[in-house]
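Technical appendix A lists one of the benchmark inputs used to test multi-chain prediction within the project. The record comprises two sequence entries:
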Amino acid sequence: METSVLEFTAPELHFGTISPLLTVALGAVLLPIIEAYLSRRKSFLSRPVTRVWIGFMLSFISTIFLAIALMLTLGKLSVPQAEVAFNAAHPMIAMDGTAHFLIATILLSAIMTILVSGRYLADVGANYGEYYALVLASVLGMMLLAASTNMIMLFVSLELMSIPIYALAGFRRLSVRSNESAMKYFIIGSFASGLMLYGMALLYGATGSVGLAEIGTKFDPESVLHLLGAGLLLIGLTFKIAAVPFHQWAPDVYEGAPTTVSGFMATAVKVAAFGALFRVLSLALQPGIESLYGALWVIAALSMTVGNVMAMIQRNVKRMLAYSSIAHAGYLLIGLIVPGSGGYSAIMFYLLVYTFMTIGAFTVISVLAKDHEDKDQIDDLAGLSVLRPFLAFVMAVCMFSLAGIPPFAGFMAKFQLFKAAIQASTELGDSSLLWLAIIGVLNSAVSLYYYLRIPVVMYMRDPEREADPDSMAGFERLVLFVCAAAVFVLGIFPHDVFVIFWDVDVIAVVSEAARSMLP
Amino acid sequence: MPDVWHYQMVAAVLFMIGIMGVLVRRNVIVMFMCIELMLNAANLSLIAFSRLWGNLDGQIFVFMVIIVAAVEVAVGLAIIIALVRNRDTVNIEESSLLKW
């Protein structure tokens, strides 16, 4: 057996391409140092240094890093063709339109999470500075995951995303529920990574390369080894998006984790994992895609049905939102089965909309937390329209949107997704996609029951407790306003979204971005 | 002379032991060690395949996995210690505040 000669070629670095990644990485490294520096001082610029002030400073600094990365990413969105990041011959990551769009969505979710975290963490007695560094490290992992085109990068970035989130789920270290949530997430998440890694080893053994594109040229859907590897790899990724039958962790983890972290997990992790699924399915597993459609079809149908049915019997809002996120993973999987770029662009639009409505809903719950306790039972929301009208309004908008009622954005997103599925099924003359769209529509109808229960409780029941003093911070008001406004605007004028001083046609942006990924 | 498929057999057996351990055992630390066993089974498999194909991608992959596993140990043990401080148990069946 002959071993190859060791040759070392220095990778070309294109700093312009990876500048958003570098910004976030720099932030993740600098934040612990800044925290250590600030907490050693008695006063800073003649102000007394307190824990709350440090928390505020750190959230401010991390928001600046994320905002710079977001600006850099948005600047690249207008040129959707792939840029070379390291090495054109063996790309580790592909910074194309899809990657940029998903990265922008991840950064938006992270910025909103960080802005609402400061007061919540102080309220539940977990105001430690590591929080922000962990969020930034996790965001870096997500950005790389959404862009990775190589199994080594896929595995490392998946772990870079997950490991800080295990720690974040257990961030309220004195709360037993938070500990339990972190422990369950950690065991199940690492188990899934183990399965995925073995799948990658088998794919490497079957094809002799770790690049997704090279695997795609050699992938043989007839061979057991190839299919076993592909199956294990997909199981690992479906664990991360919490699709049935790999969903049991999600309700427990979302319920026990700090509320802001649950919102972050529900949105950003899903965006990044769908980015990885795009790459794996469109590059590596393209030759065998026919034999995987059946499995994906079953997973999508089961996720929608189980998620919606289980959500109906929940009494805890966070737990209900967890089951709803399982159902939404099912809707999103429909887009993966649609061949061509139509399904991918529908998924990307859906993920953007889903980020706004879910962060909005979780933020409302986090604002309600009081005296070191989450007020997250559905009964706690009774009469909220009298006690806190603004919160009740935003929550109602998010719920209508999640249920997919026009004119809110959730309707537009579902419409795009089902339209892509139905179009593809008429073009191909394949009725299985049509049936999946029908199951999706029926499930949306079922979901009305539990989504609408929340506005009913808020607006039609009398308050059971005294009005709290309004302790909302300005940032929380801002995030809630942005979420509600985005849900309206993306639902009514998706072709003409007004961002500061640009008119953006979001639908055109996503279809452009989706096309840029496919060869 | 063992060939690459013998190594693959050992790796597959280790991987199955790991999976069974996670599914059957109820002690968090043991479950955690079984997860490490799964990762190491994949490592063995990667190295043997790397030898089979005569390229170094598999070896590089293993280095990355070793680093990730070390990080996972640090975070995982910290989570388990936090749990033990509050609950005084490493049995996963007794951690059942969150269900249904």
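Residues 4-87 of chain B form a domain with the Helix Hairpins fold (CATH 1.10.287.3510). Chain B is about 80% helix and 0% strand. Comparable benchmark entries are summarised in Table A2.
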